[in-house]
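Lab meeting minutes (informal)
Scribe: AK
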Amino acid sequence: MTKKTRKPVDLAAQRMLIIDDNESAQRIIKAILRSWNVQNIRIASDGAEGLEILKSWTPNLIITDWSMGPMNGETFVTRLRNVKNGDLGKTPVLVVTGHSSGPVVKSALNAGANQIVAKPLEPNLLLSRIQWTLQDRRAFTQSGDRFVLPTIIHNGTSASHSSAVNKAHEDVSEDVEKAAWLID
């Protein structure tokens, strides 16, 4: 069986929202995105400001920090996924975090994150996660007052939630190892 490869998403045509309370992190993520020709970028300093921007502008992808204040990434993603937000509540979310422990990964997936990547960011890894997230064809379903995604592992197979969390934690741990040279 051959593995299907998808054509990369044209990032120049994408609108992206960066949410991070650290101005240096904002600049780094923006510079990385600009290097891939992403021009339509908005920046918010926390989840509340991100939600305010979303009232008048719809991105194709949201890249949000997990640990920030006053509104952190968990609260932001949880509020975004509320069914009252309609299609906006289905906007893909990529969580970036310097805390890649199992509980953080589990919390991010439970809140509704599509993908997780560890800080410090390694540009090629970020690009692969952005492409994967934008090409993800899983359909959101409604569960109570929230939109949720079926849980899968990167090779496209379905998995139990716990095995998906374990796989995501392994992926994030590998991210940390790959990017370790950035902080040495």
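Next up, CB showed the second protein from the same session:
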Amino acid sequence: MNSLRCTALVLALGLAACSKPEAPAPKAEPTPQPAAPSAPQPAPVTAPAPAASQPASVLREGENFRVASQDAESAQPKVVEFFSYGCPACYGMEAFMADYKAKRPKSIVLDFVPVPIHDEKGLLMQAYYIGKRLGMLEKSHGALFRHLHDEKKHIESAEDLTAFFVALGASPSQVKELVNSQGILDEAKAGVDSAVKFGVQSTPSFVVNDKYYTDGRMAKENLGAVFDALALRNKPAIFQ
């Protein structure tokens, strides 16, 4: 068993599986939550409505975000979603993330990091990085969610993964060279390591500027506003 597989399985044991859909929370002022318990708590499936940018006053540390790293913030404003293709909650978040991508301040970089939930063999994590290498992530990203959740198909082997990309128009030889290649495994392991660093315990989860953690449970309907406020609050005017 390679080191990525070992790391992935260890992380998977510490990650909460994504939750079933929940009704939207009542629109009442949320009360401050205590520090996160040691037991993982999954984020809700229901995606918030996209929100316009709001001032930093929307931020309440310990309630709708927490500090996830003592390192300095990234110089570039960015929002990273930690997700799994096998997670129904992540699929449910896709429409919101597409809308946020279109409407976000253009200085904010949006990125994604796959983690090993419902992905014991790490093949779904590989699929993300293979899609990037092939220059077809815009096509493969949504297609893999639909493949798993709408069409109820599975990716259980290197052959399944190859067949998925070939069906999207990729060259079989190119895909075979990438599946289980050292470069792809290294990228997947780096993603797992970053999830461990930031204390990601459920999907979908978000880390802003390599420092601040939030998710749908914490930010609720203000998720987009929390992204913007966290990403830009300490940045010079050029990023505003």
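CB comment: Confidence is low (pLDDT under 50) at residues 1-13, 19-47, 49-55.
No objections, moving on.
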